[in-house]
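Run folding on both entries below.
>entry_1
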Amino acid sequence: MAGRVLRRGRTGDAVVALGAVGCLVFGGVAGCGGRSGAATGGSSGSSAVAVVREAADALVDAGSSKARTSMEMATGGTRVTIRGEGVYDYRKRLGRLKVLLPQDPSGTSMRRPITELLAPGALFMKNRGAGVPADKWVRVDTGTLSDGNLVTGGVTDPFAAAELLRGTRSATFVGRMELAGAEVRHYRGTADLHEAARAASDANKGPLGAAATGFATAEVPFDVYLDDEGRIRKVRHRFSFMNGEQEKPVAVASTTLLYDFGTPVDVRLPEPADIYAGRIAEE
């Protein structure tokens, strides 16, 4: 399902996107004032919107973190989940995640984890399969993807997930709670992808703009949990896109958990010789 959507990419790199994680699985089955607002709760509608919009800035201030991700989608009456775990540098916009695919639909074999490197404008995948040598990387130009790489890789880039919140149009303070040992404030609202693209950093303007036109709707409902420093501890987005064979939009829920802020991150992108230049097999 996801693979069919991605075939509508704008350049030849979209052919590579057919071999992205989503196709594998679904085809087979700013300033101190903002931080102060977060610390005081921001319970009114206007202040809640301001607090949520500045969550990406708080991550840049933090520098880096560990991350866990999950992406859920129902296909053919079955709900499948792709999970990822790794680290991310919010200043360099670089991340490394190990992505775990669900068991083979037949139940007879397990799929190898895929290593993904997230970089401005690019997604690199290793252990991709589909005829790609085990020692080679597949590179996807995220500027060509109709979903802006919010779904393609089976994970949502943590900083893109945060910058999507810059497009928040409405938000409500739900309440305080404890999440993984941290005191957090829960906000629920809706973000607009067009507005997020206009407010995003240069690296995410293009991808978020592509998602604004590529998804079934530019409105993205979310739940976000911020700590007392305004940093995202958990964010859940609900995306909707059209699959050519169905009349109703397909719903995808993406959840990102962030923790251990300031953790060292060392991400080295592949050399040109290590990137696979051949054709990706259909699956």
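>entry_2
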Amino acid sequence: MAKKSKRGTGRPGSDRAERVAARKARQAQALAAPARPFAGLAAECDIVALRAFVASATASVTVHGEAGSNAVSLATILPGAVQALTRDLGGSVEGLVALQTEFEGSDIPGELAHALRWASRAEAGAPYEPRPEDTDVDGAEADGEADLAATFGADTTLDITLHDDFSWWFADSADISPDIAAMIEQASESILPTARIVGENLSGAPWWVDAGERAHVRWVRPEAEDDVMTALARLHAAGKLTLGEGSKFAGSFRTHGLLVPVFDLDNEMHHEEWTAPCARFEADLADALAQTGDLTGEQRRSRDGIRGRQVTLR
């Protein structure tokens, strides 16, 4: 007698059929998701950084519209990777909304808006209630990005607080068990020294991190991806794709519809010492972005080389 196949039959209810259906659903969801979910927000580049690569940070925000009275903060990640939580601060309630979490649907802006409004209203310790499928934050038909702009404030910028550990996950008065304390300590060990480079004329969000043997600047750019790529190619061909002495262009990655150039740095220099070099690069990049002529052969080769080292983060 022939051996029975170990693979699923493909019939509804079989393991293989369920896996195929789940994979197709994820692919369809990815295609439906907006390429640039936070477009139109003044804080877009910092939101992308907090969602993509900053380890431990919070930013207090004001929830607009029909909001409750809770103080609300955006956070990089929360314990258990939950989307949102509320906690008692001794007479007041604080809501925290995570950016580094898997949202249920493709409408990330709408789900984030829903989480922000929930965090502003919910009682301390209440379990998070995800947004029902196919609805906006108030159950009506609406565009997700408009929901987030109305809830968060399109012109809002973030005053970000960086943390050396994850002790902020719990209120100061919380009774933390030894197991939870050990969990916090273990999670905190992965945090690298990080800083936001701030300058009057710096566009987007340049972030510095000390990775040990070297440091890096990851610069989330607000311009269209193709425009930044073309400008980087012009600078590379001209020998200007650098932050100066002690730096080297390492490549770039794409995330949430934005391009992020990355520079390797001398980690003996403090992050504040890179403010002036970043300002010089900003000026060079602005000049390159303003050029509209066709690329030369050398510039096209530079662009191909940069693209060859590019990766995409979701």
